[in-house]
């Protein structure tokens, strides 16, 4: 059966199944192989561990976006099929968008324009909105596509330059009913923009930005809203406080680091960016091996992020700088060549061990989405959750559509 999108009737059951799965397998997805040299599950599954640790970096990377397809020793396949089944999600019904003037795409980067069209093409509300509220709008490209010349548009954005650019673009395109307003959406006075006639939309509003919208929407009783969340870990809360009653009853306790797991899928980075990221990680892992040895403490030591120009320096200079930052004295004789090799070997191990965590990226994201959806449903909204574009357009391709029943 083809994957289908979820409706109100599915929310509770899917959330409970995901919750049980995530709680039962915490030891598989919580510890990060980058910071821990040995993971607790490796002792209980030595065959799987040894198999993963022997594979190359290229082999790991080839499977990064499809870890469930890996033909690894048991019980990997069992975890993979459960994860796949629990995270299954089909596309939302699509709808015709009113003829969008190609002129509107001017100044919009190609991938962003594709995302905007896909988002707009899946906003199938029963009642046509008359006043769109583009939440964290940037220049308001999405809002302009939705409002066209027929409906009102209010675009909220805190960066004054983007507000001014957005207003100028709306005027250039003849959208007289558009107002771009400078507003920090995390301030309480944002509530004045939410009312019985406004339909908020948020495309890729990070962490607290989209959860604030969902909570305010419930309070203000907006007729409908659509949110495509991203960056769940961009939150001021150090510990995740679930939004829904069902979420609050869960035994799952998530911190900011856990909330970063859904974002560890990288599909959009180009070749050069990937090479830089690999080199930087291999070097950090090399430094990690060194600092453990020198300190005589087998524990990860967080280090500050460095500008990419440091990658052009030899490993010895890179490590000397980090050592200085952490107050570690380097001995004169270090085999830098051997350390460089060891760093790359560690990176291959880390990426392969990450494939186990990779199985849980989407289930955890679904759990977080369902917690938001259940809050809306508890407030009388009919909620649909589904994809609005394929993952190669954006890995954050899930949209939550909510409309009041009445
Ligand atoms: C990832 S961008 C998304 C922009 C737009 N929705 C899109 O898809 O092109 C997030 C936007 O939120 C804005 N933003 C960040 N924090 C904000 C805040 N506290 N209040 C209002 N806007 C904010 C940023 O300036 C940025 O334009």
TrEMBL record:
Lineage: superkingdom: Bacteria
GO biological process, one term: methylation
Pfam families, sorted: Methyltransf_32 (PF13679)
Keyword Protein transport: no
InterPro entries: Methyltranfer_dom, SAM-dependent_MTases_sf
Keyword entries, A-Z: Methyltransferase, Transferase
The Methyltransferase domain, residue ranges: 113-235
Molecular functions per Gene Ontology: methyltransferase activity
Protein name stated in the entry: SAM-dependent methyltransferase
Organism: Pseudomonas matsuisoli
């Amino acid at each position: 059966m083809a994957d289908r999108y979820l409706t109100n009737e599915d929310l509770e059951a899917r959330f409970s199944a995901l919750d049980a799965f995530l709680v039962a397998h915490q030891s598989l997805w919580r510890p990060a192989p980058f910071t821990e040299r040995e993971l607790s599950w490796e002792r209980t599954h030595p065959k799987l561990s040894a198999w993963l640790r022997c594979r190359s970096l290229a082999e790991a990377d080839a499977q990064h976006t499809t870890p469930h397809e890996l033909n690894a020793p048991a019980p990997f396949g069992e975890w993979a099929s459960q994860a796949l089944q629990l995270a299954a999600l089909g596309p939302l019904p699509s709808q015709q968008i009113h003829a969008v003037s190609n002129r509107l795409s001017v100044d919009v980067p190609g991938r962003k324009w594709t995302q905007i069209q896909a988002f707009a093409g899946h906003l199938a509300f029963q009642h046509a909105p008359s006043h769109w509220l583009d939440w964290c709008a940037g220049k308001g490209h999405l809002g302009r596509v939705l409002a066209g010349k027929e409906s009102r548009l209010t675009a909220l954005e805190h960066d004054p330059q983007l507000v001014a650019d957005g207003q100028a673009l709306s005027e250039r395109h003849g959208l007289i009913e558009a107002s771009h307003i400078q507003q920090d959406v995390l301030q309480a006075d944002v509530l004045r923009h939410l009312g019985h006639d406004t339909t908020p939309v948020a495309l890729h509003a990070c962490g607290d930005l989209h959860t604030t919208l969902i909570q305010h929407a419930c309070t203000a009783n907006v007729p409908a809203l659509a949110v495509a969340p991203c960056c769940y870990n961009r939150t001021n809360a150090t510990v995740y406080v679930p939004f829904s009653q069902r979420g609050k009853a869960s035994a799952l306790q998530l911190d900011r680091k856990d909330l970063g797991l859904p974002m560890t899928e990288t599909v959009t980075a180009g070749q050069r960016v990937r090479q830089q990221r690999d080199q930087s990680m291999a070097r950090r892992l090399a430094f990690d091996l060194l600092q453990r040895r020198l300190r005589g403490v087998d524990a990860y030591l967080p280090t500050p992020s460095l500008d990419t120009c440091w990658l052009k320096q030899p490993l010895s200079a890179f490590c000397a700088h980090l050592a200085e930052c952490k107050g570690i004295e380097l001995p004169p004789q270090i085999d830098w060549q051997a350390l460089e090799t060891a760093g790359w070997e560690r990176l291959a191990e880390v990426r392969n061990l990450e494939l186990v965590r990779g199985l849980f990226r989407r289930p955890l994201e679904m759990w977080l989405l369902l917690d938001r959806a259940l809050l809306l449903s508890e407030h009388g909204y009919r909620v649909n959750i589904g994809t609005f574009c394929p993952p190669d357009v954006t890995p954050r391709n899930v949209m939550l559509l909510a409309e009041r029943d009445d």
